[in-house]
C-alpha cells in the first residue's frame, strides 16, 4: 500500500514536532511548512493526500489558505483539516470549505482518527467518481 502524504502547515515548531513524530510513527510521509509561501513552494514538488493547516500564520490566515486551496482546480479534491486555538475559528474554517476542524490544545489520538477518517472518505469519494 502506498504511503499517504500529509502536508502540515504550522508555524509553532513544538506543535509541528509533536505532529511530525506522531504521524511518522503511523507511517505517513510528511511535508512540513511554517508559512504559506513555504507551502506553495513545497506543493509544487509533490501534492499531498491531506492538508493540516494552522489558522494563525506569519504570512496568512489558515482559513483563507484553506479557501484558496479548495477553490483551486489542482487542490480542491484534497481534504483539509484546519487547527486553531482561537474560539471563533471553527466557523471561519467551515465557511472556507474545510473538511474538518480541530481546536488546540488537541488530543493526539483525536488528530490521528480525524486524519484517517478524511483519508478514508477521500478514497471512497474517488471510487464513486
Compact overview of the structure:
The protein is α/β, with parallel strands linked by helices.
The helix-and-strand class reads: alpha/beta
At the first level of CATH, the class is Alpha Beta
The number of helices is 5
The largest sheet is:
5 strands, parallel
Write down how many β-strands occur, each being a DSSP E stretch of 2 or more residues.
Answer: 7
Shape: globular
Could you say what the CATH topology is called? Answer: Rossmann fold
Radius of gyration: 13 Å
Can you lay out the helices and strands and say which pair or pack?
Layout: E1 5-9, H1 13-25, E2 29-33, H2 36-45, E3 50-54, E4 56-57, E5 60-61, H3 62-70, E6 80-84, H4 89-95, E7 100-103, H5 108-128
Helix pairs in contact: 3-4
Amino acid at each position: 500500500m502506498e504511503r499517504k502524504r500529509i502536508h502540515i502547515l504550522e508555524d509553532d515548531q513544538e506543535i509541528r514536532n509533536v505532529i511530525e513524530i506522531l504521524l511518522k510513527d503511523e507511517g505517513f510521509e510528511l511535508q512540513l511548512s511554517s508559512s504559506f509561501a513555504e507551502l506553495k513552494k513545497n506543493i509544487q514538488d509533490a501534492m499531498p493526500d491531506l492538508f493540516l493547516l494552522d489558522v494563525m500564520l506569519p504570512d496568512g490566515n489558515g482559513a483563507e489558505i484553506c479557501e484558496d486551496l479548495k477553490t483551486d482546480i489542482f487542490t480542491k479534491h484534497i481534504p483539509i483539516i484546519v487547527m486553531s486555538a482561537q474560539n471563533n475559528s471553527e466557523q471561519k474554517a467551515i465557511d472556507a470549505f474545510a473538511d474538518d476542524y480541530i481546536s488546540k490544545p488537541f488530543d493526539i489520538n483525536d488528530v490521528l482518527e480525524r486524519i484517517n477518517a478524511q483519508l478514508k472518505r477521500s478514497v471512497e469519494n474517488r471510487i464513486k467518481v
